[in-house]
C-alpha cells in the first residue's frame, strides 16, 4: 500500500546510535533513552525534541515566576506598585501568541511522528521482516513463529539487524507488550489483533514486560528478548525444533487456564491455525464454572 | 439471609487490614462515645447533619476530603515502602493486598479526597462570592454531600468486610469481569462510585443553576469572580461527564450481575468500548478538579499581590476553552491501543491545544504578580509553589500527548510522576491554599502561619523527592503497579522516592499540628472584621463566620471586584455605606432527607455488593419513602426576624467602623 511520507526534518532524524542520545547520562542506560533499534530511537528522539521545544517556554516561565515573586515582594520599596494595572493588549497578544506558536510547532512534530512511528508501519529495510505472533496470558507471554514452526514462552529470539513484525492478541485480559530499548509499546486485547514493527540493531539481551496491569501475577510478566546474530538465530530455531513439546489447542488451553507465571520454554512444533483461532475467540480460556 | 456475606469475609488471617480496620472502628466508636457523653448529639444533628446551609455543607465536604486524604496517603506510604523492599524479594504485601492498595489509593484520592475538597470549597465560597443567601437547591446540596459520604463509607467498609477491587482505580475489563474478579472487590468499587456519582451529579446541577440564576443585583457574568467562573465550568463538566461514568459503570454491573456481555470476552463483548467510555468521563474529570484549583489561585494571587487579576477576559475565555477542549482529548490515555497515525495525531494535537489556554492562564497569573506588592502568607506560598511545579507537570503532560513519546512512556512511572505532578502541584496545592485562605471566613480565626509554612515546605520538598525519581524510573522503563521487581537500575530511584514519602509524611503531621495549634490559639488569630487578607470579592464583605443568611442586604454590584470597590468608597468618604431598613429574611429549614436517603442508599449498596436482596429492597423502599416524605413537607422555610438581622449586622458594622478609623488614620490604601 502506498503511504504518503512526510519529509523528515533533520531535527528528529533518529540516529539510532547509543552515544548520540545518551551523552553523559550513563544512569539512564538500559531505558527508553538508550534505544537499540529504529522504533526506539525515533521515540526517544521525539521525546527529547519535544522536551527541548517546551523547555524554551517552560524554563523562562519558571525563572520569571521566581524573579517576579522576589522583586515584587511587599517589603521591596524599590519595586513599582501598579495597583490598577490589569490589562495590556500587547501583552495579551504575547500571552496567547507564544504558547500558540510553540504548540503549532509541536503539532507538526506530533503529526509527522505519529505517522512515521506508528507501530503498524513496516520498518524500511532491504530484508523481509520475521513474523512473530504474540499472545498474552495470565501471567506469561506466548510467542509463535509461524514460518519457523516453533513457539516459546517468555523468551523471544530475533535476528539482529532484521525487522520483525508482530501480530499481538490476548487470550485473557488486556496487557501491554513493551521492550523499553526497542520502543513501540502496544496493547494486547482479547478478540483484537494489534500490529507492531520492531528491529534490534545489535545483538544483545533486552528486558521486556507487560505494561498494562493484568492481575495478581502481573509483576512476573516479564520476558527476555534475545537479539542474535543470524547464525545464532538459526541455531536457536534448531534448538527449539528439537523440543518435544507440542503447542496445540489442548496445550494452549492448559497453559492459559493455569493462572501463574511460567518459566521459559520452547515448543518444537505448533498448530498453525492456533493464533487465528485465539484472536477470533474460538478458544475461550474462561471456564464456564466461574460463577 | 446474608447473601455471600459470611464470617470468612473478615480478613482474620491478614494482620494489616485487620488491625487497621479494628483501629478505625475503635476510634470511630470512641468519638461517638465522647460525643454522647458530652451531649453533643443534638448539636451535631441540628447544626451539621441536617443542615442545608451551603457553608456548613462545604465545611463537611472539606473535612471528609481531608480525612480521606489521610487514608489515601497511608495507602501511598504502604505502596512506596513495599516497592522499597521488594527488589528481588516478595516484600511484605502479597499481590492480593498490594493490588487492593493501589486501586483504593487512586479511587480514594480522586473520588473521596480531591473531589470533596474541591466541591467543598465551591460550596462554601461560590454563594458568598455571588452575593447569594444560599445555593439554588439547599436540600439537594445536603443529599449530594451525604451520598458522597455514603460512597466513601462503602470503600472503607471494604477494608474490613471482604476486599476492595484489585483492578486499578479504573476497572478495565475483562479484568474487572466475573471470570477474572469473582470477589466482591469490584462490586464495592462499582456501588461506591455509582452512589457517590449521583451525589456529584446533584452538586453539578445545583451549582450550574446557582451560578446562572442566583447572583447579587448588578453582578453580570463579566463581573463574576474568577473562582465562580471556574466553578461554573467545572460544574458544567460534571453535568456533561458524570452521566457517562454512571452509564459505563452500570454496563459493568449488568455484565457482572445479570450476565450481559458489554465488555466480556465471550458473547461478543468489547472491552475497548469501556476504555473509550471511561476516559470520555475520565479526562473531563481531570479538569473538573483542576479548574476550581485555577480559580483558587486566581483569587489568592490577585489578593496577595494587591492587584486585580490580569487579563480577566482572557482568563474567562481560557477557562471555557478548557471546558470544551477537555471533551475531545480522551484518546490520549490509550495511544498504545493501535488506533493508527491519523487518530493518534489528531488527539495528540487536541491535547496540546489545552496547553495553549493553560499557558495563557500561567502568564496572566505572572502578570498579576507583576507590579504587585506581594504578601507571602501561606496561601501565596502555595500559589508560587504551584506555578513552578505545575509548568513542569504540564510539560511532561504535553510530552505524553505526543504519541511516539507515549509509545515509550505509557503506563510507566513517568506517567505516575506526571499526573501526581499536576494533581498534587495543581489540585492539592490549591486545596491547601484555599483551605488556608477561607479558613478564617468559615471559623472566624486564621490558621497558624508558622506551621502553615512548615506544611508548605515539607509537602513541596516531599513531592519533589518522591516524584522526580519516578520520572527517571519511568525513563528507565519501569512500569506502574509492580508488586516486586528484579531490575537493579530502578532500585535507587525507588528508594529515593520512599524517602520522599517520609518527608511528605512530616508535612501531613505538621498539617494536623497546625490545626490543633490554631484552635488552641484562636484568640490571638481572631479575624474580627471579616476581611483578614484585604480581600477583593464579596465573601469578605460579610462577617467571619458569616451569619446563616450571608448578607443582611444583598450587595449592589457595579464592578468586577465588588468588595474592593466598596472598601475604596468607604476609605474615600470615611463612611461605611448607609444601611436601609432591616427586613426579616426567609431561610430554608433543616432537612434530614439527605442524611436518611444516603443512609438507606448505603444499605442498598451494601446489600447489592453481598447479594443480600432483602436489604436491597428495604433500603430502596426506605430511601424512596424518605424522599416522598420530603416532597410532602408543608413548611420549607423559616423567618429570621428583622431585629436579629439587625443585631448580627450591627456587630459586623462596628468592627468595620473600627477598621475604617484605623485605615483613615493611616490615610492610605489598604
Overall description:
The complex is a heterodimer of chains A (291) and B (670). Chain A has helices at residues 18-21, 38-71, 89-116, 230-242, 249-257, 274-279; strands spanning 130-137, 140-145, 150-153, 155-159, 164-170, 175-178, 186-188, 194-198, 204-210, 222-228, 246-247, 265-267, 269-270. A six-stranded mixed β-sheet of chain A has the order 8-5-1-2-3-12. By secondary structure, chain A is an alpha+beta fold. Chain A has two domains: 30-116, Helix Hairpins; 130-279, Immunoglobulin-like. Helices cover 32% and strands 22% of the residues of chain A. Chain B is mainly alpha-helical and 670 residues long. Helix content of chain B is 68%, strand content 1%. Chain B has 19 helices and two strands. A two-stranded antiparallel ribbon of chain B has the order 1-2. In chain B, helix 6 packs antiparallel against helix 17 (593-610) and helix 8 runs parallel beside helix 10 (341-369). Chain B is globular and about 75 Å long. Classes of the chains: A alpha+beta (291), B mainly alpha (670). At the A-B interface, helix 2, helix 3 and strand 9 of A face helix 4, helix 8, helix 10, helix 11 and helix 12 of B.
List the keywords:
heterodimer, A: 291 residues, alpha+beta, Helix Hairpins, Immunoglobulin-like, disordered N terminus, B: 670 residues, 19 helices, globular
Widest beta sheet: strand line-up of chain B:
1-2
- Mean pLDDT score of chain B, rounded? 94
Tell me the helix content of chain B: 55-70%
Task: Estimate the helix proportion of chain A, in percent.
Answer: 25-40%
In terms of DSSP E residues, the strand content of chain B is under 5%
**Basic shape of chain A:** elongated
The sequence of SSEs of chain A as H and E is HHHEEEEEEEEEEHEHEEH
